[in-house]
Design brief:
binds ligand AOF, 16 strands, five-stranded mixed sheet, alpha/beta, nine-stranded mixed sheet, binds zinc ion
Length: about 375
């Protein structure tokens, strides 16, 4: 359908706004919002808060029920196709059918192979009018990671870089603290909090000894909105091809899960000192002895919608050079570190402009005294 009324647009915008509230808590499920309208009035609304809990439609229908209202003859606006499968919860399509909803407006179809059009078919078979495609682009953008993983089995990859105006991350002698300011660093915490997995390399762990967790106190108003218990700690992934890491790393002192990926087994006596929240995975290497990033992403894609790469120039550059990044988030500080400073990305020597990565600027803004650019790869 293409002739949407301004009322339809207003209702779906509201459903998208509701879906957005689940951004930090629904993973690996998608963010979904639902608004139920009776005769031009919103009578129920809801969003999916957590995997395992009620879907958006169920929460919206519950609001009606709590008010003692019937959903008979109503219109439901849903940002994602209602599910058709018995997962952790029963099918939402069935819930809408049983509630006698008259019309369902869907923003985007659900690429989950368990659903993928069947929710819409179920509704139509039950005689419900279903209109699809309203504000599809915005609704799709709510769940880039979920959508990509459902379609390809791979997570959405965002590579973070913090650099100077001249694209350097450190002086030639390695001095790097702090290139960007506190506001940019707090912004990074929000990125961490919204991702399923954080990825770094052994060099960064050995040199910087990061915790690589979400620091709740840095999330500002988000914590009051969510409650500290709702803050999700992503899986921390370290690429350590030669199995060099030992249990003294600061990373280990925080109890959220860690995955160490190497090309050979860790020595048994070292492994024995790893705490229980650490697991190890051996993956194949490329001819240069680097862990295969496609194999890594295929593995992470079994559970993670999104991966946030916070690594040095070699690993971050490898994602870019191998065309495996979806977004680059670049924090740029108003500093100049000089031509001998360290490059932000280690990349091949391109000889034609056609070989260089093709990026589109999605967003550009000031964060404190720094700039943040979100660049998206144009994939063919
Ligand atoms: C909907 N409404 O609000 C959401 C949907 O494990 P479950 O039972 O929670 O099912 C998860 C799947 O359901 C998820 O992969 C996606 O296909 C769909 N999510 N569907 O109708 C919702 N969150
Ligand atoms: Zn559902």
């Amino acid at each position: 359908m293409s002739n949407w009324s301004s009322f339809d647009i207003e209702m779906m915008s509201r459903a998208i706004m509701l879906a957005e509230k689940g951004r930090y808590t629904t993973r690996p499920n998608p963010c979904v919002g639902c608004v139920i309208v009776d005769d031009g009035n919103i009578v129920g609304e809801g969003y999916h808060q957590r995997a395992g809990q009620g879907h958006a439609e169920v929460n919206a229908l519950k609001m009606l029920k709590d008010k003692g209202l019937s959903a008979q003859g109503t219109t439901a606006y849903v940002t994602l196709e209602p599910c058709s499968h018995f997962g952790r919860t029963p099918p939402c399509a069935l819930g809408l059918i049983n509630a006698n909803v008259a019309r369902v407006v869907v923003a985007v179809t659900d690429p989950n192979p368990e659903v993928s059009g069947r929710g819409i078919a179920m509704l139509r078979e039950a005689g419900i009018q279903v209109d699809v495609g309203l504000l599809a682009e915005q609704a799709y953008a709510l769940n880039l990671g979920f959508m990509k993983r459902m379609k390809t089995g791979l997570p959405w990859v965002t590579v973070k870089v913090a650099a100077s105006l001249d694209g350097k991350t450190a002086l030639s002698n390695g001095v790097s603290k702090w290139i960007t300011g506190p506001a940019a660093r707090a912004d990074v915490q929000k990125y961490r909090a919204s991702h399923c997995a954080l990825l770094t390399g052994i060099e960064t762990v050995l040199i910087d000894d990061p915790s690589l967790n979400v620091r709740v106190e840095s999330l500002g108003e988000l914590t009051t909105q969510l409650g500290a218990d709702d803050i999700f700690q992503p899986l921390r992934v370290v690429l350590d091809s030669q199995a060099r890491l030992t249990a003294t790393a600061k990373l280990f002192s925080i109890s959220s899960p860690i995955l160490l990926v190497s090309a050979c087994q860790y020595p048994e006596q070292v492994k024995a000192t790893f705490p229980a929240h650490v697991s190890c995975l051996v993956l194949e290497c490329d001819p240069l002895g680097r862990i295969s990033l496609p194999a890594l992403l295929a593995y992470l894609g079994t559970t993670a919608n999104s991966v946030f790469v916070e690594a040095g120039a070699t690993l971050a550059g490898a994602f870019v050079a191998q065309n495996l990044a979806d977004d680059v988030v670049l924090y740029q500080a108003p500093k100049i570190l000089g031509s001998h400073g360290r490059n932000m990305l280690q990349l091949p020597d391109y000889t034609t402009l056609e070989q260089t990565p093709s990026l589109q600027l999605i967003d550009e803004r000031s964060i404190g005294k720094d700039k943040r650019y979100i660049l998206r790869y144009n994939k063919t």
